[in-house]
Amino acid sequence: MLLSFKYKLRPNRQQSQKLTQWLDLLRATYNWCLRDRIDGWHQQFIMGDYCDLKNQVEIMPLSCSLVKGTQLTNPWKDGGGKAKKEGRENKSPKRTASLMQDANLQELKDARPWYRDIDIGVLQSIPARVNESFNKFFKGAGFPKFKRRHDFKSFSYKPGRVKIKGNKIYLPKVGWMRFYNSRSIPEGFEIKTVTVRQKVNGWYVSIRIENKTVPDFPVIPDSEIKTITGCDMGLSKLVYLSDGSSIDNPRFATNKKTKRLMRIRQRRVSRKHKGSNNRGKAQLKVSKLHNKIQQRRESYQWDAAKRILERSDAVAVEDLQVKNMMKRCKPIKSEAGRFLSNGQSAKRGLNRCIADASWYGLTQKLEDLAVKSGKKLYRVNPRYTSQTCSKCQHVDKDSRNGEKFICANCGHIDDANLQAARNVKIKAIETYGLNIVKLIKLKMVRRDSPKPVQLSLFEAELCKRSPENTPPKGKRCVGENPEYKQLSLWDIKGEIS
Ligand SMILES: [Zn+2]
Questions:
Q1: From the CA of 415, how far away is ligand 1's center (Å)?
Q2: Could you report the per-residue pLDDT of 74-99, keeping only the tens digit for each?
Q3: Is the domain covering 222-244+297-432 a CATH 3.30.420 domain?
Q4: Nearest-CA neighbor of 232 among 358, 325, 316?
Q5: 17: which strand partners?
């Protein structure tokens, strides 16, 4: 089993300075390696197969050192080592770009001795990172970018280098450092890759731990799923559930109070001189507020995910393309060539709300928790979920009017969002062929309910109060209180949902 734990570090002043310095040096190495790879890439693929860009000499396969990625050091494998001893030829006589950059690190350390202060594993991870971003690019991701100070915030140690003892962690070449041991690493787990990350409120470390003897969380087969909850993500409420309930959306970044505070702090930044210390201080306050908002959101979403998963064996969510939903409106041009209003200013507010709700993050958390708690998450196509009638399955655009849903076919009236949540549930059952058990819903009616409820004669018999089921005076009988659970203060009315 492979797990990941996160802790906050407590470096002293020297250690903190050292870590910051490392980040700068590593970033410089990253950018240098990237520049080298980009040069190699252009030479081969854009400028033609030239050995030298300046005089455009054609490449000679045997004598020229041109390779796909880099122009550093010796591009050829030396042919020695294990392969030669065993009498077999290397598959490719050329070294890969990341291998070449890796071999070049020694030269770097000779030329710039201050790089020797950095752990070699950490330094070696940099060409690997460049290589990874290029591999992603070859598979269709964007072209690798140079890193600036704000987007290069972490470095990793290789497995087996970091040690932990009590509330102290040993980071090679930095030394023993205190940390907040907020949860202990389970016994038998060994420490794998360790990533140190700088955030606005300090340094954090995330530790991958593994124990091969412990099996992974079991995957539940679809046939074992008995109950399922459909979820519809929204903005006025964060999640609407198919059982009729919903979870509030606190709007951590877009509520009035936070927006005002953010505006004030951002204005303070803009009024300071560029490059001044005061501007830096003001900027730090903005970053801290962003961090606070993010932490609040994370915490709330974990809680929400837990509450959603408590209800049933499985959860169905829409497979939303949030990125597409947050696109800008297309510009509208008049015949005279002037731009007309296209509603972008309203869309901007909506986009901010969507980003604030962070549906994707919530879905990720749901998935993560579901795996850990032996439950399952199903993703369904979000198409027509808000236009379909859950009673008669009639699809009509006119059925929905804002928050209201009135089926154009059968006249079924419902809340549009809850209706969508039910559709998600139905869709998940259909697409994955689930065998859902219909539950008998017990309707609770309080005796002292302000609204009188007409009970049948049989049920009226049940709710007679006898001396033994009367709670003591001064104490209210609450449903969750185990002490009074057996009391029939609640009248139970059976109803098939
Ligand atoms: Zn209908």
A1: 13
A2: 666 665 555 566 666 555 666 777 88
A3: yes
A4: 316
A5: none
